[in-house]
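Tokens for chain A. Residues wanted.
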């Protein structure tokens, strides 16, 4: 005997539809997908979603006394 037969999956799906309603399910699944994506990026240390910090231009070299003459 399987742990979850197709009949069990149908019952679970019916309960989910009754509990959340047909319109709410896509929103819940979208939120779960975003959460999983965010978790994976956090585990990888991936910061590609954040814009890179702009590096400041190196300061101009200071004029020396010889250059001023």
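Reply:
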């Amino acid at each position: 005997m399987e742990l979850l037969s197709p009949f069990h999956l149908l019952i679970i799906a019916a309960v989910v539809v009754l509990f959340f309603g047909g319109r709410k399910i896509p929103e819940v699944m979208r939120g779960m997908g975003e959460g999983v994506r965010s978790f994976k990026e956090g585990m990888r240390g991936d910061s590609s979603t954040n814009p890179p910090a702009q590096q400041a231009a190196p300061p101009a070299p200071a004029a020396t006394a010889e250059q001023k003459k």
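Residues 63 and 69 are 10 Å apart (CA to CA). The chain has a mean pLDDT of 77.
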